[in-house]
Amino acid sequence: MRILVIHGPNLNLLGKREPEIYGTLSLNDINQALETLGAEFGCSLRFFQSNNEGLLVDEIQQAPENYDAILINPAAYTHTSIALRDSLSAIGLPFVEVHLSNIHRREEFRHHSYLAPLALGQISGFGLDSYLLGLRALFNYIKN
Ligand code: DQA
Q1: Domain 2-143 CATH superfamily
Q2: CA–CA distance, 106 with 78 (Å, rounded to integer)
Q3: What's the gap in Å between 20 CA and the centre of ligand 1?
């Protein structure tokens, strides 16, 4: 099983960026923890981070050639990007949306996600565990 892990804008700054909200782990720490869990499941993972909406769309469009599912933290594009939503809708791969922080207890503009209605589910508010729970959920969904 092959899973594409996508991190949206500003997540390259994790560890230094507002640690009281996003924690002190770096993106590399998160990817390593995912890699370890993925190995337990026998999943191979590819990690892609970009601050560029178009590059994220390009990556999603190509995903069906190589991957069975997507784990995505769309970051700020969650709340703004019809383009990301349309690309996920177009390819039709199962995906889980994750957020480190609980977007529903933050500013009003973070409460809405353009992607969530297409996702298998959304996991929000558990830091690293949001990603790990998301990977577990994707794995269990696909293997059935
Ligand atoms: C985030 C939440 C978003 O609202 C924010 O724009 C981010 C990170 C999270 O993981 O908590 O960049 O997706």
Answers
A1: Dehydroquinase, class II (3.40.50.9100)
A2: 14
A3: 13
